[in-house]
Amino acid sequence: METLRIGIVSISDRAFNKTYQDQGLPALKTWLSSAVLNPLEFVEHLIPDEQPLIEQTLIELSDNQKCPLILTTGGTGPYLRDVTPEATLAVADRVIPGFGEQMRQISLHFIPTAILSRQVGVIRGNSLILNLPGRPNAIAETLGGVKDEQGKQVIHGIFASVPICVDAVGGPLVETNPDVCKSVRPK
Asked: MoaB/Mog domain spans which residues (predicted)?
């Protein structure tokens, strides 16, 4: 299996300034390491909520680091400093609205304030860029979806559609651990 190079970006003024320890990057790495069977290479960034810096980081990961998958965490709420979606849309070639719609559907299963989330999914060149929530449990829920007490999938997580989208933008064939996330590919 080909190595999957993933850009992961935690966007938080407080974590960047060391007011508290960043939990987004470890949560992303933990979930992805359990879900993806390919060897993984992470290109990590912890940055403040500054739109020009977010844009610059996404461009760097897409255009120069050649990451076919870029995941951000944080900065997607309604607060004035939450500018991750604006930065992501500013660097996008194409928007894939279904990713944001599905992320909100999953989160609404757990918390009514999910209607305030503004996550987006976009393509820039040969990269899929997805904005995830900031809390570690919300990251896992969004990626993996909602399961009932017996482990049956109730709402698919967004990662079920990530492998086919990574393939569509020219990335490697991504294999997933079906116990964590069954990826969907057309026959």
From this structure: 7-153
Tokens of 19: 């007011």
Radius of gyration of the chain (CA): 15
How many angstroms separate the most distant Cα atoms in the chain?
49
Go through 162-173 and write b for each residue having 16 or more CB atoms within 10 A of its CB, e for each that does not.
Answer: bbebbbebebbe
Please tell me the distance from the alpha carbon of residue 136 to that of residue 8, in angstroms, as a whole number: 14
Segment holding 10, helix H or strand E = strand 4-11
Please name which of 90, 26, 25 lies closest in space to residue 53, comparing C-alpha atoms: 90
CA atoms within 13 A on the CB side of 33: 9
Q: Can you state the angle between helices 136-144 and 24-35, rounded to 10 degrees?
A: 30
Torsion 103-105-110-111 (CA) sign: positive
Query: What gap in Å lies between CA 1 and CA 111, rounded to an integer?
Result: 38
Judge if pTM exceeds 0.85.
yes
